[in-house]
Amino acid sequence: MNWDDTSPVTDDTQAGRLVGAAADGEDQAVEAALRPKSLDEFVGQERVREQLDLVLKAARQRGATADHVLLSGAPGLGKTTLSMIIAAEMGAPIRITSGPAIQHAGDLAAILSSLQEGEVLFLDEIHRMSRPAEEMLYMAMEDFRVDVIVGKGPGATAIPLELPPFTLVGATTRAGLLPPPLRDRFGFTAHMEFYEPVELERVIHRSASLLDVEIETDGAAEIAGRSRGTPRIANRLLRRVRDYAQVKADGVITRDIAAAALAVYEVDARGLDRLDRAVLQALLKLFAGGPVGLSTLAVAVGEERETVEEVAEPFLVREGLLARTPRGRVATPAAWAHLGLTPPHQATGGNGQQDLFGA
Ligand SMILES: Nc1ncnc2c1ncn2[C@@H]1O[C@H](COP(=O)(O)OP(=O)(O)OP(=O)(O)O)[C@@H](O)[C@H]1O
Q1: To test ligand 1's pocket by mutation, which of 3, 45, 80 has the most ligand atoms within 8 angstroms of CB?
Q2: Regarding beta strands 2-3 and 167-172, do their DSSP bridges make them parallel or antiparallel, or are they unpaired?
Q3: How close is the Cα of 235 to the center of ligand 1, in Å?
Q4: For 245-297, how does the pLDDT look when each residue is reduced to its tens digit (9 = 90+)?
Q5: How many Å lie between the centroid of ligand 1 and the Cα of residue 171?
Q6: Range(s) of the domain holding residue 170
Q7: Is residue 21 within 8 Å of residue 74, measured between CB atoms?
Q8: Domain boundary among 167, 191, 215
Q9: pTM of the predicted model, to two decimals?
């Protein structure tokens, strides 16, 4: 494997967060050991696996290079892992880079021209590539050719360069962010969904056995329920629970041990961490469930507006605990139930917060 960009795909706003979906330094070190190596080992995503299996088998039967593949989905759902599996299943080498690492078309030309025949090029965060590089990629994907521009101004000339056939695997958090001409050049697009708790249980059992940790079925279920549908988070929580089990007990992960360990790390039964709960608590206790503006909510929890919007809210919205409305953020009945509080209109018999904070 060849890494062009070894910098972790991290997001500063997620740094140090146990339930953050972006990879941190420790994740990077351990993930290599935990990555499934074949489609059979890859847990969940049944539809994607089945479709990809067909695409790869057909290419192998034809003795051809596999079509370009676009993987979309949230961080930590297994896009990098799948790209490595694609290379392994095709018996091809893989080169890994990312959109932000390719700022000039020349950077991309250098990578493309050094690819071997059949090689898989994994381009993470493909939506963050520079515009000129993106345009070069169109031609490379379609015709396996690039025009390298030599010189500047009126004297500049384009030198055509033939490329060996290769498979581009692009990854993006949202396929909708890609310009249509780029999206259209992928022969196969897979959207990766968040994982069901039972699937995460399988991920956890598999990782526990690779890490040589003993875990009971209930213990795995307890961790899975708090992993926010994301294998990377499941693996990270497993490592923290393992520490706890080792230091405070006999090393075996039971349901009680998992629950106690994750209470120490302030990850609650639904996977909310301290920040998520602080946002919900402020919304419920200070603003009677809203609607309240984002900036006001951010001040109330002592965080930046962006942190609340980008770090806490997406998961709260996905969990059906918070709604973004034109008039501001509003707590749902599930939020009141989750924090064990009673909505004011139930206590007073009217829709108190709407009247109190209405326009
Ligand atoms: N389906 C799966 N089965 C088992 N383990 C998985 C699966 N998907 C992901 N993992 C594990 O989760 C971790 C994160 O996966 P991966 O790095 O592939 O995610 P990603 O989608 O590429 O994330 P990012 O977008 O942040 O790069 C890896 O350690 C991998 O082993």
Answers
A1: 80
A2: unpaired
A3: 9
A4: 999 999 999 999 999 999 999 999 999 998 999 999 999 999 999 899 999 99
A5: 12
A6: 35-191
A7: yes
A8: 191
A9: 0.87
